[in-house]
Amino acid sequence: MHLSLPKLPSFALHSPLLDQTLSVLSEYLPSPTPALGALDRRIPMPFKQIAAEAPLNRLFAQAIREGEFEDFEGRRIRLEVNGGQPGITLGFWAGRLRVIDGPGEATIRGSLAAFKTLAERRQDPDQLFFQRRLIIEGDTELGLGLKNLLDSLEWRFSIRQLFSS
């Protein structure tokens, strides 16, 4: 059985009005972290896997093909918003990034804004860690390995890219 996300019309993905609206909303609305945490706790793991695994594997497909993630085989890393929720634990098995339940061997924690800055590559990842906007706990060598891998890859994070095929 193959599940896929519905396709959005292309005009909806390239709308300056949509971009401006999202910019204004992100500037003036309160932090969505409490609402996201409550929602995160209610979503069953299979739905999280469906929503996150395909886009992540698409985003990092070239790096996975080139063996860049092989050092992470069988390892677990948790990305967590300050306060513990929402969060996601990722693993790498059999050539695919997987969303799994449970703690990570390493946890990278920060604010939504810090993760957004990291994903959009608007600031050097080392600066985010030195400024303590992102923190690694647990197996710091594993966490630093992921940070260094993400920093070395040529990738661009885009909501449009993640949900288009």
From TrEMBL:
<feature type="domain" description="SCP2">
    <location>
        <begin position="56"/>
        <end position="151"/>
    </location>
</feature>
<comment type="function">
    <text>Required for O(2)-independent ubiquinone (coenzyme Q) biosynthesis. Likely functions as an accessory factor.</text>
</comment>
<dbReference type="InterPro" id="IPR003033">
    <property type="entry name" value="SCP2_sterol-bd_dom"/>
</dbReference>
<keyword id="KW-0831">Ubiquinone biosynthesis</keyword>
<dbReference type="InterPro" id="IPR036527">
    <property type="entry name" value="SCP2_sterol-bd_dom_sf"/>
</dbReference>
<protein>
    <recommendedName>
        <fullName>Ubiquinone biosynthesis accessory factor UbiT</fullName>
    </recommendedName>
</protein>
<dbReference type="InterPro" id="IPR016830">
    <property type="entry name" value="UbiT"/>
</dbReference>
<comment type="similarity">
    <text>Belongs to the UbiT family.</text>
</comment>
<dbReference type="GO" id="GO:0006744">
    <property type="term" value="P:ubiquinone biosynthetic process"/>
</dbReference>
<dbReference type="Pfam" id="PF02036">
    <property type="entry name" value="SCP2"/>
</dbReference>
<comment type="pathway">
    <text>Cofactor biosynthesis; ubiquinone biosynthesis.</text>
</comment>
